[in-house]
């Protein structure tokens, strides 16, 4: 039973994560904590183990979706590597921050962070991107033949990557919930290119973060083995849907879902 539940959790998280560029950890981490607290199906999950296991899963989500996006030619590999220069060290710093958190502290902080993410997802729709890209101009033509112009200063991209990487290492999420809106609003990235590039950066950051967590024993290997197949196929599924669907409705559903989960975690943290 627990393997089936974890398989479905991995698939759902990876599909949404790959579709919107979040990475999926924003669902895996609270999913593991709530499954343990409410159902008792799984056990032995501390905040550190939830985060470490989630980051390991995101390697496979990121790799699966990145390969799909490369085939679609909808990914900026050079920009992803620039952002990773910051996100790699940031992931290690986030892992270090994570070690000092106890369960109640983690639940309250993570629940608050999820509310912030739902607000960011709302702002992404209502705030206009900069009309002029910051930095040298880059160009990309989408599958409909529309040419987009975007750009950024590498130093700003690296700094943003460090912030996103720190959040990834601390909470076990991809950081795309902040990276994608920033790429769209500040750097004028085309939305589909931003999602694909974010997933590439998330994969690289997850490798660094998960290795750091493995070294300190923060991975539940049996649960990871159950989550990985769902994450792999979910990553491919989300990449396919990203090309075919407008994500507005899914973003709305995700925001509602995140708020519900956030208040559940806040209640659990403050009353536990």
Automatic annotation (TrEMBL):
Belongs to the 4-toluene sulfonate uptake permease (TSUP) (TC 2.A.102) family. This is Probable membrane transporter protein. It is found in: Cell membrane; Membrane. It is a multi-pass membrane protein. The chain crosses the membrane at residues 49-70, 77-97, 103-123, 155-188, 200-228, 249-267. GO terms for cellular component: plasma membrane. Its main location: membrane. Keywords: Cell membrane, Membrane, Transmembrane, Transmembrane helix. Pfam families: TauE. InterPro entries: TM_pro_TauE-like, TSUP/Inactive_protease-like.
């Amino acid at each position: 039973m627990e393997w089936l539940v974890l398989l479905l959790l991995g698939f759902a998280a990876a599909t949404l994560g790959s579709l919107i560029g979040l990475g999926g950890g924003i669902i895996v981490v609270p999913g593991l904590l709530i499954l343990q607290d409410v159902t008792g199906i799984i056990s032995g999950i501390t905040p550190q183990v939830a985060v470490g296991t989630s980051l390991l899963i995101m390697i496979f989500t990121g790799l699966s979706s990145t390969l799909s996006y490369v085939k679609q030619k909808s990914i900026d590999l050079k920009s992803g590597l620039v952002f990773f220069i910051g996100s790699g060290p940031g992931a290690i710093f986030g892992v270090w921050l994570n070690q000092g958190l106890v369960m109640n502290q983690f639940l309250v902080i993570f629940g608050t962070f999820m509310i912030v993410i739902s607000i960011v997802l709302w702002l992404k729709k209502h705030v206009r991107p900069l009309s002029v890209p910051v930095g040298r101009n880059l160009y990309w033509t989408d599958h409909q033949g529309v040419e987009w112009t975007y750009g950024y200063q590498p130093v700003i991209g690296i700094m943003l990557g460090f912030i996103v990487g720190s959040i990834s290492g601390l909470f076990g999420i991809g950081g795309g919930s902040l990276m994608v809106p920033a790429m769209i609003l500040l750097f004028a990235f085309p939305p589909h290119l931003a999602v694909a590039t974010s997933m590439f950066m998330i994969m690289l950051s997850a490798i660094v973060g998960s290795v750091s967590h493995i070294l300190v024993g923060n991975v539940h290997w049996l649960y990871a083995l159950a989550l990985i197949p769902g994450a792999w196929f979910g990553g491919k599924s989300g990449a396919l849907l990203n090309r075919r669907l407008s994500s507005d409705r899914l973003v709305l559903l995700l925001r509602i879902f995140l708020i519900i989960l956030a208040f559940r975690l806040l209640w659990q943290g403050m009353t536990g």
